[in-house]
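Quick question, first post here. What does this chain look like in 3D?
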Amino acid sequence: MITTKLLDGSKTSIEIRKNIKKIIKKEFINKKKYLPHLGIILVGNYISSKIYVNNKIKECKNIGMNFTLKHFKSNYSEGDILQEIINMNKNPLIDGFIIQLPLEKHIDKNKIILSINPKKDVDGFHPENFGKMALDMNSFIPATALGIITLLNKYKIKINGKHTVVIGRSKIVGRPISILMSRKNIIGNSTVTIVHSKTKNIEFYTKIADILIVAIGKPQFIKGNMIKNGVIIIDVGINNINYNKILGDVDYKSVIGKASYLTPVPGGIGPMTRIMLLNNTLKAALNRK
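> Answer (accepted):
Ran it through. Tokens below.
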């Protein structure tokens, strides 16, 4: 039996938070510049979205970063959201902002994303930032993918030459992490396979993975009999069961003793995603003209 080591996202995020606070003190407080400022646009009344936004606001307060929340609760139109985006694009006090997903069905998500100023797109979803990331140019990288890369780097996990299997192809996690894992970089040079809902015999691919990144939103989908000994597992899933229990996409108990490394849920990629969003906001603030 293998001793499974946990990749502690909570602990790592605390260390990154301390570093962000040091930079804010040095570059903004000591120089008497206005503090980094994150804008948040929340649409609708999804309970999960409210929880995510509250956690981001709490993180802003912990770090000492300013924030503005605009919540469209009801009786709003696509035009109302676009107008608020224009306001945040023009507001010199807001360094970066996000649109909390998902959006209501009557809202054109692509139109919304395209309206964001790429220099304030701290979610990294605008085509300009996504394209630059794919070309290995300086850009805002989607927070969850950046959190995964940062956590692997923190634990000095070697990726070079390994076979990474990504389950899920979303624009938020699956696509960006597949690009980052395969790029010609210190944290990269992996051979990447993407599997999804239309892939036949997913278990064939999970059993040959050296690194398995799971982001499909299905509680405990990956079982111990679907992996090989020594695999490194990144569980991105956050499945809120009846709003009182959080489960990942990996069956935690059944992979313990087979996986060499594993991210816990909660306490793994979740806190890394939040801190990377604020790290992107700090980056936007440092880029001010």
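The mean pLDDT is 95.
The domain at 32-117 is CATH 3.40.50.10860 (Rossmann fold).
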